[in-house]
Amino acid sequence: MAKNIDILKVITHADGGTPYSSSVSHYPSNEDSVAVKGYGVVDNDPETAQKQFDTVTKYYGNTGKNQFIHVMMSFLTETAPDATTAMEISDHVLDPLKENHQILIGVHQKHTPKSDYHTHSFVGTTDLETGKMLHTNNTLNYEVAQRTADIIQKPVQLVVGKKNTDTNTTQDGDNNTEGKNDFKRIFYPHKNTTD
Fold this sequence. Notes:
CATH topology: BirA Bifunctional Protein, domain 2
Strand content: 15-25%
Strand order of the largest sheet: 2-4-5-3-1-6-7
CATH class: Alpha Beta
Number of domains: 1
CATH architecture: 2-Layer Sandwich
Shape: globular
Radius of gyration: 16 Å
Largest sheet: 7 strands, mixed
């Protein structure tokens, strides 16, 4: 079943520092980008977005801690046939985090046999009101994966990535989006209650 399934990958870089902060701010709008959206950060100026992320982190004394959670969603063509749909799904999945966390979402177009669009969402881990850190643990990862499955009403494979410098993992012909040591689990949708 894993050969034809939408993929949600969660990646953390605990020791990223300034170079990673810069990469996070620039990556959503790279050469593959077709759409960018920001919450609490500007979406049209990577340098300003980086300053906004870094300012919140520094203000609350969280410099040197895991500043971002990277959520990559790789959609099958039938799930997200266009960039608008890919953005809408990612945007909706992250709704619960928007009020208290900075978020930068980029939709990338990359044609593969099974997928045309994937998104990279970078969630600032510092809570805007309390300064407390959001941690990538099973509770958060499972909630995001289940929410994704419920929104698209299809199974989703959660892949929790170990430290990886390659932020561009997408579905290719072999559905090769994960490393050998990554944790994987499939989430099935609950019945859509709005039907």
